[in-house]
């Protein structure tokens, strides 16, 4: 099963965090669990299609705090396994918000 895991968290510029996160990413990559990861823009663009018209607006925007966004695509056996990976991730970075969504394949 593949899952998209997204995170928004306060920015921490901590060398120990980068080292620990690097080891975590290396472990998941070596095991074949981590398929893709990276940072992401928090605001983005929102599109709404209604009655044949498409409205494009900037945002949504976060509060004026210093936040970072990121994503990972993982392949695991179950949703519970994805949740456990997310728990390990937050054990490294600390506070933040996350979301896990299953990705369906043709």
From TrEMBL:
Residues 12-87 form the YCII-related domain. InterPro entries: Dimeric_a/b-barrel, YCII. It comes from the Bacteria. Gene3D superfamilies: Dimeric alpha+beta barrel. Coiled coil: none annotated. It holds the Pfam family YCII. Belongs to the YciI family. This is YCII-related domain-containing protein. It comes from Actinorhabdospora filicis.
């Amino acid at each position: 099963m593949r899952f998209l895991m997204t995170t928004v968290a306060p920015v921490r510029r901590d060398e120990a965090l980068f080292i620990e996160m690097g080891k975590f990413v290396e472990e998941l990559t070596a095991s074949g669990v981590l398929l893709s990861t990276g940072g992401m823009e928090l605001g983005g663009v929102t599109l709404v299609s209604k009655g044949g018209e498409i409205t494009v607006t900037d945002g949504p925007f976060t509060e004026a705090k210093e936040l970072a966004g990121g994503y990972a695509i993982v392949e695991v056996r179950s949703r519970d396994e994805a949740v456990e990976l997310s728990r390990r991730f937050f054990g490294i970075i600390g506070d933040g918000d996350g979301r896990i969504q299953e990705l369906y394949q043709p």
